[in-house]
Specification:
This protein is α/β, with parallel strands linked by helices. The protein contains 20 helices and 24 strands. A hairpin with a 5-residue loop joins β16 and β17. The two termini are 39 Å apart. One zinc ion (ZN) binds next to α1.
Length: 675
């Protein structure tokens, strides 16, 4: 391979161990029997070991290992599966695995993986160096082990994923559709969120209060051996503390995961790029990524136009960035929540890597309107070195992202149901009905503005949002006798009242995510959250209780009233009647499940009605759905069904997350068309 100025090539993501390598791994007479770094041209690490292009061993972290005579022969032989396999290795010449304790002291063992399996069976937590970073593993059927991991990781509720040996084992734990099976066994081998069987021996602690379980199959030789030796489903969650990026270096892992892991299964092949596991769902037969990382990035999204060289910096939560050139959008792997210096550093380093790998020098930099996002600040720094800056409204970016995901270009009705995003009027938007294309958008409707007392405090404590909404819509009397109010002190209620009256740190919002939060808190499901969206997620879960096994059971259409007004061309969805009716249902003793189902129906209904109103004015009948609220599968299903049965052509996300992980793609395509 010869480096050429400006020339670039696409880079294969890391992909799961192939069948041929797996057979060698399990064959006692093979020279690679139980060798955890077995790979060939059809599988193995790629992107995570590449430091620069062209892709040759000296430019990867494999350069420290000199191939032995046998490996070299395979590498040189055009008829061999390992012809020009840059990471080719064997037990004689390649990387080695080692087990160390929490102090970093070697645990003497002839077979570190077998020893690790024994320790896992005894309830220990082990940090395992994988493809793109460390994963924390423990026995998923051992409640105490999982609880301990939660305490040490300071993650009381956020769901963990599990890894199991094979497809048969997955079916013990989840209901698996043929499409889900296909995705699970694909070379990408992502985590797939599937309906969790009630009689699965996996502890409820793995995904507390949830009806879905995230499961993946082994995707490296190390995983295959470990899972077979252990014979148990294992929790496999990112090796980090709360929201820090995944640890990828031995010393870093020992330092940062000290106090979390009892042992470390490490090796001496360096990871150049952090790479979290990808997460996908299959809904209505369509695969959809909710976290795009391992095995997908850095493979580009193909754009329906020839692009300039642009950088989209993304938003704040679940950040990714996006670089475009020619017909490609190189969307980065999931970077993380941009709220600490480690993540910001990871963001900056990964941008440099992509720029180098794909020979991109962005002339234009797009960023979110929110002035406080670290990604926005990063963009503003770049303007000093002469880049042209283009601000992009958050929900316009969501819709453009969905359009690019589907290869669309003409104006479309864009429905963004989202948590938080800075609006063009500086209010917090998130229940938005737009007509948009890449060149621009008009906002034709939204949820009515309501106060968010305490701003971020209300996001973390949804009861504050509920109180704010009820005070505004139903008045103070309505707060009396509500069960969730027992958790709230009189003093706090007074503070909230004052914040709203005087508009002190009490921004107005049209967010659909906050409406879900408010209803969740109001009906007594979740008042405080541990992870983004928890209150809304548990509200969705409540609906499934109205329909055992939550397949298609919630097809009753009962909904709550609401009204739509029109003010100077803007349609506003008024929520007073909705809250009144929910309060009435609570008084009548309706179950949370019933209220949740009716609420979901109402949101689908109002979305359909708004689309009809906009369609009658504009003649557009194509609708794009985006925004984090559409991770709610019940709402997604109901909304799509209702829109389609009313003659709309509906586009949803596939390759790119509907959450803020897709924002950078939208920003980059919009900036391409900016004047
Ligand atoms: Zn292979
Ligand atoms: Zn060798
Ligand atoms: Fe968003």
């Amino acid at each position: 391979s010869i480096a050429e100025e400006g020339k670039y090539q696409l880079i294969s993501p890391d992909i799961a161990t192939c069948q041929a390598c797996l057979s060698e791994l399990l064959e006692p007479n093979n020279r690679r029997y139980r060798y955890p770094f077995t790979n060939c041209t059809n599988c193995g690490p790629r992107f995570t070991i590449i430091e620069d292009m062209p892709y040759d061993r000296p430019k990867t972290t494999m350069r420290y290992f000199q191939m032995c005579h046998q490996c070299q022969e395979e590498y040189n032989n055009p008829l061999d599966r390992r012809f020009h396999a840059q990471p080719n290795a064997c037990p004689k010449c390649g990387p080695k695995i080692e087990l160390v304790d929490a102090q970093g002291k070697a645990v003497a063992s002839p077979d570190p993986i077998a020893t690790a399996s024994r320790l896992l069976r005894r309830g220990n937590i082990i940090a395992i160096k994988g493809l793109g970073g460390f994963l924390l593993a423990c026995d998923a059927t051992n409640k105490t082990a999982v609880k301990t991991l939660r305490e040490r990781k300071r993650r009381p509720f956020k769901p963990f994923a599990i890894m199991v040996t094979n497809m048969g084992e997955i079916k013990r734990h989840c209901h698996v559709s043929p499409e889900e099976e296909k995705l699970l066994t694909s070379p990408q081998s992502p985590i797939v969120l599937m309906r969790w069987k009630k009689d699965s021996p996996v502890s409820q602690e793995v995904a507390p209060n949830l009806a879905y379980l995230g499961v993946m199959l082994p995707y490296t030789p190390l995983h295959h051996i470990l899972l077979r030796d252990t014979g148990l489903p294992l929790v496999m969650t990112s090796g980090n503390l709360s929201e820090e990026p995944i640890a990828n270096d031995n010393d870093e892992a020992l330092r940062r995961l000290k106090g979390i892991a009892d042992y470390f299964l490490i090796h001496n092949r360096d990871i150049y790029s952090r790479y979290d596991d990808s997460v996908a769902i299959v809904e209505r037969g369509i695969n959809q990524l909710v976290r795009r990382a391992r095995s997908y990035a850095p493979y580009p999204i193909t754009l329906p136009f020839k692009s300039k060289q642009v950088l989209g910096c993304g938003a704040e939560m679940k950040n990714t960035f996006c670089l475009t050139r020619d017909n490609y959008a190189f969307l980065s792997q999931h970077i993380g929540d941009m709220e600490n210096t480690e993540t910001l550093e990871h963001f900056g380093n990964t941008i440099s890597l992509y720029k180098r790998l794909f020979r991109i020098e962005p002339e234009i930099v797009a960023y979110d309107l929110h002035p406080d996002y670290l990604s926005t600040k990063y963009a503003q720094e770049l303007s000093k070195s002469g880049s042209k800056l283009i601000p992009v409204q958050h929900h316009h970016a969501h819709i453009a992202s969905c359009m690019a995901d589907n290869g669309l270009q003409s104006p479309i009705i864009g429905v963004t149901l989202d948590g938080t995003g800075m609006g063009a009027d500086r209010y917090i938007w998130g229940g938005e009905f737009l007509v948009a294309d890449y060149k621009g958008f008009s906002r034709l409707g939204h949820l009515e503005y309501l106060p968010l007392p305490g701003g971020d405090a209300a996001i973390k404590r949804p009861y504050r949002t509920a109180i704010g909404y009820i005070l505004s819509l139903s008045g103070e009397n309505a707060l009396r006798r509500l069960a969730f109010m027992e958790q709230v002190s009189k003093v706090e209620v007074e503070i909230i009242k004052r914040q709203i009256e005087r508009r002190l740190n009490s921004p107005l919002t049209s967010s659909m995510g906050r409406l879900f939060d408010a209803v969740s808190a109001l009906i007594g499901i979740r008042s405080k959250i541990d992870y983004e969206g928890q209150a809304a997620v548990e509200l969705e879960m409540a609906a499934y209780k109205a329909c055992p096994e939550h397949s298609e059971g919630t097809n009753d259409n009962e909904s709550y009233p609401y009204s739509i007004t029109k003010d100077r061309g803007m349609r506003i969805i008024k929520l007073g009647e909705l809250f009144q009716a929910i309060l009435e249902d609570l008084k009548q003793g309706s179950s949370k499940a019933r209220i949740s189902v009716k609420f979901h129906n109402t949101v689908a209904q109002m979305t359909k009605e708004m689309c009809q109103l906009i369609a009658s004015e504009t003649g557009i009948n194509q609708v794009a759905l985006s925004g984090g609220v559409f991770q709610n599968r019940l709402l997604l299903k109901k909304t799509v069904t209702l829109l389609e049965s009313n003659g709309f052509q509906v586009f949803t996300h596939k390759q790119v997350p509907c959450n803020d992980g897709g924002i950078s793609l939208g920003q980059a395509v919009i900036a391409n068309f900016a004047k």
